[in-house]
Amino acid sequence: MSSSSSCAKPEFQSGQDVSGYTIVGKLGSGGFGAVYHVKKDALQAALKTEFVVKESSQTLKNEVHILRLMQWSPHFCRLYAAKRLTWQDQKVNIMVMSLCGRPLSRLRRMMPQRHFTRETAARLSFMILKALHDLHQSGILHRDVKASNCGWHEPTRQIMLFDLGFCRKFLDKDPKTGKLKHREARKSAGFIGTSKFCSVYAHDEKDQGRRDDLWAWLYTTAEFFLGSLPWSNEDNSHLVSTQKHKISNKLFLRCPREIYTIFNHVKQLKFDSCPDYPMMLKEFQNMLTRLQIFDEEVFDFEPGSAYYEQYYANRQTDSECEDCQMLTTDLETSASTGEQTKASRIVDVDPAPALNEVVGAGAGAGAQEAVITLNSSKSSEKDGGVQRLAAGLNRAFNRIIGNE
Ligand SMILES: Nc1ncnc2c1ncn2[C@@H]1O[C@H](COP(=O)(O)OP(=O)(O)O)[C@@H](O)[C@H]1O
Ligand SMILES: [Mg+2]
C-alpha cells in the first residue's frame, strides 16, 4: 500500500513565477502534490501541482478532467488553467482554481472542544451533501470525502469540494440498450480513501459506490457535531473498521435526529443503490426549520459570531499557523492530522483525456510550458452563472454517456 504523503512534490518559492502566476505562499500538501496560493493581476487563486512520474498514474490529470465536468456546480472550484510544465528537468502538471480559505478540518480544530456549534455543523454538513448530490448526479464518485477536502469559499459563502484525483465514474453505457447503467462491482478494488472516514466496505477493499461517499460524509458530519470520532486516535485501519462495526448507530444517536434518519437510510444502501437524495435534503431542511437555523446567520468562523474574535480573527491562534508556514512547512499534511489518504491502486481512476501537447511561449522562471488550456484567468467567479450551469450540465452528461 502506498502512503500518499511520502511522494516527492514540486517545491516552489514565494515570489517565483510559475507559468505567469506568482507564488504567494503554500496552502497545503497531502497526497501527491502541493497547493499554493498564487496571484495573476487581480486574480487570487490556488495552484495545485504534482510531478509526472508515470503517464498512467497522474491523479492531477484525472482531477482536471473531473473538475471540468463539474464547472456547472457552485460547490466545486472554478478551473482557470491546467498545464504541463518542465520544471528543473522534470515534468510537472499544474492546475489553477478558485482560492478557498482554510479547509473545514482546520476551522473545526480551532473551535473549543474541536466541534462546531450545532447551527454551523448542520449547515456545513448540508452543503457537503449538496456537493455530493451534484457530483453523483453527474455520474461521479469522490471516494475521499472528508473535511480536509472541503474548503470554505468566502466570496460565495459556500464550501467547495476539492481533491478530485480519486474520483471515478460509476455509470457506463450498456452496449446492448445504449442506456446508462451502474458499473458492475469489481471483485477487489484495492483501498482508496482515508481510514478515519471511509465506510466499512472500503476497509474491506470492496468496490465503492454512492453509499460509500455518504458513509464518509456521515462520519465527517458526526465529527462536526461531536468534535471527535471514537477511533480518532487509532492508527490501525483494521481496528478502526472493528470500531465502526461495533459502534453502529450509537454515534449518530448523539447527532440531531434527522441525521439519525439519514443514517438509517444509508445503512441499507447496496453497492449500486441510488440514494434517496430528495428525502435526505428534505430531512436537512426540516432540521434547519426545527432548530431555527437561518441562512443569513453567521458561521462560527465568520466575523460577528461569538467565536470569531477569540478563535479566528487572530491567525496566531490557528494551530497550524498560516503566517509562519510560508513555503517550508506543510500546513495540512495528512500525517500531522492522522487523516492520511491512502490508495493501494493508484491507477484505478478512469483514463482522463490527455492534456494537449501544445508547446506554448512565455514560460516563467525556468518552467517550460507544454500545455495551455481552459478559461482565461480573468473569468470572474460569478461569470454567466445560469448559462454555465446549463451548458456544463449538458456537457458533463454528454461526456458520461460518451457523446463527446
Ligand atoms: N482551492 C483551494 N484553495 C485553498 N486551499 C486549497 C485548495 N485546494 C487545496 N487546498 C489546500 O491544500 C490541501 C491539499 O489539497 P488537496 O487537493 O486535498 O490535495 P491532496 O491530494 O494533497 O490531499 C487541502 O487540504 C487544503 O488545505
Ligand atoms: Mg486532500
UniProtKB/TrEMBL annotation:
Task: Tell me the ranges covered by the Protein kinase domain, including all copies.
Answer: 21-288
Residue ranges annotated as coiled coil are none
Q: Which residues are ATP-binding?
A: K54
**InterPro entries listed in its UniProt record:** CK1_Ser-Thr_kinase (IPR050235), Kinase-like_dom_sf (IPR011009), Prot_kinase_dom (IPR000719), Protein_kinase_ATP_BS (IPR017441)
This protein's UniProt keywords: ATP-binding, Nucleotide-binding
**One Pfam family recorded for the sequence:** Pkinase
Kindly give the PANTHER family that the UniProt entry links to this protein.
Answer: CASEIN KINASE-RELATED (PTHR11909)
In Swiss-Prot or TrEMBL terms, this protein is called Protein kinase domain-containing protein
Q: Which organism is it from?
A: Caenorhabditis angaria
